[in-house]
Amino acid sequence: MQLPRLLTSLLFLSPLVVCHAVTSPDKKEVYTAGGGKCKNPLVRREWRLLPDQEKKNYIDAVKCLQTLPALTSNVVPGAITRFDDFQSIHIRLAEIIHNVGLFHHWHRYFVWFYEKALREECGYNGAQPYWDWTLDSASESAFLNSPIWCPTTGFGGNGPYINESGNPFLSIPGRTGGGCVPDGPFSNYTLHLGPRGSIAKNPQCLRRDFAPFISPLRLTKELVRLPHCEKAFDWYDFKAQAGAREAGFFLHESSFHSAPHIAVGGEAGQMGDIYASPGDPIFYLHHAGVDREWWKWQNVDPETRLKDARGPSIRFDFPFGNNFRGGNITLEHEIGLLELAPVVPLRKVMDTEGDLLCYSYAKEKAVYDPTTEKWVAEELSAEEEDWEACKN
Ligand SMILES: [Cu+2]
């Protein structure tokens, strides 16, 4: 369904992102993934809480992946770098990993492999950071001024406004960009794949097409909490993913997976492309954020929830319980990353601290201190943890 295009095309928003230094102490972790039960998990933290040196280390490692040669170019000649490898895998599997019950499992495995490549191939010694979108949801300007977009200690910002996005599949009223990202560490990187399912070599820039109104409308703490109030995984998963069958902007009110894709990618940006979205390095922070929500949900009742895998095995085969085409996924359902990784039953990725994965998420919250104009880490109180997890 087409929505009327708003007059925001006239209001080219040019956010001035202020990048404040963060100086919280480095946390030292030892990586012990594989070979027995996880002992010293890597701890993933919110981007803005990383000390600047750690932010730089992460960005440098991503840039390193963007220079290493692809491993899949014999299958996908358009894939030139290791960074492209990951985008290529997502493009080729996109139609079987979204709007299905294994969405969360597959993306957990995918982001973990990316983190592993950064560490093992690019000398990165930290954990995959995540993006907590709720921190930027107070207003449109909060979204536009997020430290995530900082050109020096973040991922660069929006593209300049272009009138025609050339995307016949999405109509996002209130989009504000669409051109090549002009600043930040990735403005010079040439992507090679997409749009959508295309894996032919197609050199292109990183594009963003911010739709900032989506942030306060879809990504507040109250809305992101809604799926957490579901006790069964299939409903949690459905609400988090969106399940929106039709293209366009009609996301479920709690779809914290889809909303940031559209808020960042709009019509023209890679992030809004369900196939090619990993072309934007912010994809991995976004999906770590999605993974963290699932991790929080699992940890409310680990006994039950670390074994709860349900939801359709065939795309859009809703409603649950009586999926008429393919039935539910099970713990034995297999997930893989084509040439990049072994196929594993999805029970292997249920526990982030199991015998394959070995990471967790920091139990802290980011608080903005207006006097120092800095984000600082504070401990999460038990009540706050309960509230976020929807235990009451
Ligand atoms: Cu995806």
UniProtKB/TrEMBL annotation:
Entry coiled-coil feature ranges: none
GO molecular function: metal ion binding; oxidoreductase activity
Gene3D superfamilies: Di-copper center containing domain from catechol oxidase
Range of residues in the leader sequence: 1-21
UniProt superkingdom: Eukaryota
Keywords: Copper, Metal-binding, Signal
Residue span(s) of domain Tyrosinase copper-binding: 280-291
Name recorded for this polypeptide: Tyrosinase copper-binding domain-containing protein
Database matches in Pfam families: Tyrosinase
